[in-house]
Amino acid sequence: xxxxxxxxxxxxxxxxxxxxxxxxxxxxxxxxxxxxxxxxxxxxxxxxxxxxxxxxxxxxxxxxxxxxxxxxxxxxxxxxxxxxxxxxxxxxxxxxxxxxxxxxxxxxxxxxxxxxxxxxxxxxxxxxxxxxxxxxxxxxxxxxxxxxxxxxxxxxxxxxxxxxxxxxxxxxxxxxxxxxxxxxxxxxxxxxxxxxxxxxxxxxxxxxxxxxxxxxxxxxxxxxxxxxxxxxxxxxxxxxxxxxxxxxxxxxxxxxxxxxxxxxxxxxxxxxxxxxxxxxxxxxxxx
Length: 287
Description:
single chain
């Protein structure tokens, strides 16, 4: 449970940092790409064994890191676009409701059993994510940009499912830091290629402020994935339990941090969502 709690804390810090990006006028794309380079370096530093870089492409999980790297850079940018066009609440709901995808995957492919109380807990978790994120007047989604939150939902779910599959099938626990570093290196490389292509169309403006923002984002980003991988290793916690608690707790903690740090207004629906979140975690974790 300690690994899961640490994953929740570091993931919640990412939302706080994104909130600060707007305040300090950070160019999100450049900060995101820098963050992946930083996360990769942190992963290499935490890997205990000697690294032979030529052997990494021969690892059974290597191709998976290329897919995850592409998805990381794609989904992060889709989340940014969704926040701008449909609102932060819509982006948050789309991201965290994606827990349904890895839970269903674990039931179908790993034959994980869900008790009635666990199923009720997962349903309450979905309701909690909605109510914690919804504004007083409700979520308003322009049908013309509905493809964005739908893409975030699918992309986030595929990322979580892929992490679970690779962790359980191909990645030894001692290689978690190296695997995580490879994923972030892949995302950084794809982001760098994108910037190079973009430079042919428009001028690139990279400044120290964006780089520093990327450093601040990269460290918690790495540990959010690293501790999630560790949490998935616990035999006492099923995949459904890990992803449900992880996603709901992130929304809950992010909401509380928003109140404490940014004086965000919390409606009665939001408080109802927090109560549902507590109930869902209780049901999923204990039954």
